[in-house]
């Protein structure tokens, strides 16, 4: 299980503004320069890395209360609830990943929180944008592995979304050996450190899903897609 380093050298300013709470209101043009500085600083200090694994599905079941449960082979990780029933019912395998920007980004966040309030808001939004870009890269890895199996993927889904409990987080991170591999730890309230970290699961299916990309245009994995570079796509089943 190799650690992947992601060379991310750009991000969309519109995404940074969105994470800052921008909703079309007017703002002073001088803020643009500060945002550019914050984006460049985030790219400079962050070390985006991730671990990705694909587990075969061992089976689906229901608890005595009727809750859907899917178990994964070779791991203690189980995924349950109505959200997982919608997301994973019928999946042949599940991609699981964790990504992080590392402790240098975390230290910069803490420094700015004490010294520069506006700078902290901007850097925090830029770092969130950057870690989501890292998650796009990890998801692209899952998509590639799915295509090699002749399978289709849906979209990534993280603990805390819907009714996928945050209690899933410790077992998910353990399945990836994320503390040793990436330095990700959990607080008693199940918050990750470094805070700019993302975990997620992606379903792999025999049949095309409604969320399977029908073209490469607009795909969040576009910049990181290995398949595109070889002339293949994730929405066909052609294998070499």
Number of helices: 8
Structural class: alpha+beta
Residue-averaged pLDDT, rounded?
Answer: 91
Which residue ranges are poorly predicted, with pLDDT under 50 across at least 5 consecutive positions? none
The geometry reads as globular
The strand count comes to 9
What's the alpha carbon Rg, rounded to whole Å? 19 Å
Question: How would you describe what is shown here?
Answer:
The model has no long low-confidence stretch (mean pLDDT 91). The protein has 240 residues and is of the alpha+beta class. It has helices spanning 13-19, 30-45, 82-88, 103-115, 117-148, 168-175, 178-182, 226-229, and strands at residues 4-5, 49-62, 68-72, 78-80, 93-100, 152-153, 185-186, 192-193, 197-205. Helix 2 crosses helix 5 (117-148) and helix 4 packs antiparallel against helix 5 (117-148). Strands 1, 2, 3, 4, 5, 6 and 9 form a seven-stranded antiparallel beta sheet that branches. Strands 7-8 form a two-stranded antiparallel sheet. Strand 3 and strand 4 form a beta hairpin. It has eight helices and nine strands.
Write a concise synopsis of the structure shown.
This protein is an alpha+beta fold and about 240 residues long.
